[in-house]
Amino acid sequence: MSQNILVINAGSSSLKFSLFDMKQQTETASGLAERLGSDEAALTVKWPGGQTSQALPDSAYGSVLTLSIAVLTQQQLLERLPLVIGHRVVHGGEFFTDPVIITDAVIDRIRRCIPLAPLHNPANLAGIEALAALYPDIAQVAVFDTAFHQSLPAKAFLYAVPYRLYEQHQVRRYGFHGVSHQYVAAEAAARLGISAQHGIISAHLGNGCSACAVANGQSMDTTMGMTPLEGLVMGTRSGDVDPGLHQFLQQQEGWDLDTVTNMLNKESGMLGLSGLSNDMRTLEAAANEGVERAQLALAVFCFRLARHIGGLATSLRQFDALVFTGGIGENSGFIRSKVVENLAIFGFALDPDLNAQNGNAGGLISTGPGPRVMVVNTKEELMIARAALALI
Ligand code: ADP
Fold it and tell me: Residue 328 C-alpha to ligand 1 middle, in angstroms?
């Protein structure tokens, strides 16, 4: 008998799902509904050996999910109802340190975190509510992007602004990508045989990018902050800028705060620097052809990441491994080699052949006695499925 678990990642303009058979620990199908709310809204469902795409006349989550389930049933991928449904929820504030079964009280707390994630949490809640309506008898579990980082000490999570703002509005650093950092750090420690005691820095590099210092399985510091805008240079997000920039741009360009925030989230990062693309493959190809702004964007990306990794090492007692993950981290030997080159002070010994192959069977891409460098493919959806199964 199969053990179906449905994992949902509901975003503001897209909805992704994965269906797992936990007996086999395999993904049986995945789906992506994108450009929701526009005339081009479309649903693609993939499974081993096939896929289907169709336009979505109605972008409401309930309709998207009903159609997705109809496709899964039609393709005989969902012969039994899911045992449990797992949801990726972006912001759990200070409420959640672990995955939880969704109850009315949990929904209320996710709602109370909306001011901290105004685009993401309402979408996550809409996904939860749509599935509760479709499957009222199936338990739902929330897995939070912020939860893993609740172990950060106060010295790492506080901003140096009046303390009242933390007490009254929970202004602090939260960190994101927690499911990924927790998984790749644990996986790297297990592969190195150092599960009990370790110091690892993981770099999750996708469209969003963050890095995290993990000591003995606990997050000690991370680069994203109150929102996923802080820290590293990303596809379209700026990462750290001087907070004085906002007023400067108001004076020089006449921009209001919404315009500045939009620019920092959507027009900055690799796209803003290169003027070309937010996609790392496109930029690497352009840099190879000699496009200077692409070369410059890559140099800033790698330097800023290396600089943050150096800072994160402050939170570790020992430095066993630097782990790369996410679309860029798992696939770009060029980025990994440049980052390591910027970190010569740590004495990494990158193996060029292993790096070019994205790692050996265990993920190692270095040799020698210094801290190791590894590539570990992230499995956020599978981790959410496992967490959901563990709770029922
Ligand atoms: P998301 O954060 O949306 O889940 P991904 O983790 O899939 O994104 O990462 C997307 C990024 O990974 C894009 O910038 C893409 O160009 C980059 N990427 C994927 N494959 C490669 C590759 N072979 N070389 C360089 N970058 C790559």
Answer: 5
Query: Ligand 1 in contact with 331 (CB < 6 A)?
Result: yes
| Predicted pLDDT at 13 | 84
Same domain, 323 and 231: yes
Q: What is the pTM of this model?
A: 0.95
Out of 224, 302, 328, 335, mutate this one to test ligand 1's pocket (max ligand atoms within 8 Å of CB): namely 328
Look at residue 159 and tell me if it is in a domain: no
Using CA positions, which residue lies closest to atom 3 of ligand 1? 207
Question: Residues 139, 208: one domain?
Answer: no
Residue 45 CB–ligand 1 contact under 6 Å: no
pLDDT for res 1: 61
CA-only gyration radius of the chain, Å: 21
Nearest residue (CA) to ligand 1, atom 8 = 206
Structure tokens at 358: 């994205």
233 Cβ inside 6 Å of ligand 1 = no
Query: 384: which 2 tokens?
Result: 């959410």
* Sign of the CA dihedral running 79, 390, 112, 260: negative
143 lines ligand 1 (CB under 6 A): no
Work out the burial of residue 295: count CB atoms within 10 Å of its CB; fewer than 13 is exposed, 13-18 middle, 19 or more buried.
Answer: middle
Sort 88 into a burial class: Cβ within 10 Å, 0-12 / 13-18 / 19+. buried
- Ligand 1 atom closest to the Cα of residue 378 is 6
For residue 373, what is the DSSP state? E
Residues 89 and 215 reside in one and the same domain: no
- Whether 332 is in the pocket of ligand 1, judged by its Cβ within 6 Å, is yes
pLDDT averaged per 10 residues in sequence order, the chain, 392 residues: 88 91 92 91 94 93 92 89 95 97 98 92 94 94 98 98 97 97 97 95 96 98 96 97 98 97 96 97 98 98 98 98 97 98 96 96 92 96 95 93
My answer on whether 221 and 334 are in the same domain is yes
Residue that terminates a domain, selected from 79, 110, 144:
144
The preferred substitution site among 13, 18, 331 for testing ligand 1, maximizing ligand atoms within 8 Å of CB, is 331
| Structural domain for 86, as ranges | 4-144
